[in-house]
């Protein structure tokens, strides 16, 4: 049994759930919420976000563990010293940003801060959130593309 191949499949399933969810929030849910009546915006967003954040914690953890297992199994640590493997750095960067947001920033202060800001100025708060989600989605998309090409031999 080829454990690396099985681990790669698990890695990709986790990435599809996590980055696919990010795309759904960024391209469909947030723009939809921005067209809702002011008083329903925050309540709707928090209900959806809470549900996805719980699931994303699982997929981000699975992506990190399977990624780590593959780096070890492929004896690929030295790639981190080679700028040609920028997509390896990008994977770790995207993972680190989401791990920080989901496990530290959100439960500790971000959730409360967004609720306070949205109470004061919902339009500005949701525009800011949409912009932040677009930046993360762009970074994640470039990373998925770079990793898919790089893992199959394309050198940049
Ligand atoms: C701690 C975080 C991560 C680590 C250590 C990691 C590590 C790895 C490793 C070692 C591979 C196999 C490369 C090869 O076969 O040469 C891989 C493949 C891949 N990873 Fe990650 N990864 C991480 C997070 C991510 C993230 C956040 C994304 C997407 C945004 C991602 C997307 C991919 C993709 C698309 C592949 C290519 C699979 C294929 O086509 O064979 N990974 N990852």
Overall average residue pLDDT = 96
Total domain modules:
1
Low-confidence stretches: none
Number of strands: 0
Radius of gyration: 18 Å
Order of helices and strands: HHHH
Main beta-sheet annotation? none
The computed structural class is mainly alpha
Helix run count: 4
Ligand types: protoporphyrin IX containing FE
What is the approximate shape? Answer: elongated
For the terminal residues, how far apart are their CA atoms? 32 Å
Measured as a percent range, the helix fraction is over 70%
Note the beta-strand portion. Answer: under 5%
Features:
elongated; 4 helices; single chain; binds protoporphyrin IX containing FE; mainly alpha; 156 residues; 85% helix
Briefly, what is this?
The chain is mainly alpha-helical and 156 residues long. Helix content is 85%, strand content 0%. It has four helices and no strands.
Structure in words:
The structure is a single chain. The protein is mostly helical and 156 residues long. It is 85% helix and 0% strand. It is elongated, with a radius of gyration of 18 Å. Bound molecules: protoporphyrin IX containing FE. Protoporphyrin IX containing FE binds next to helix 1, helix 2, helix 3 and helix 4.
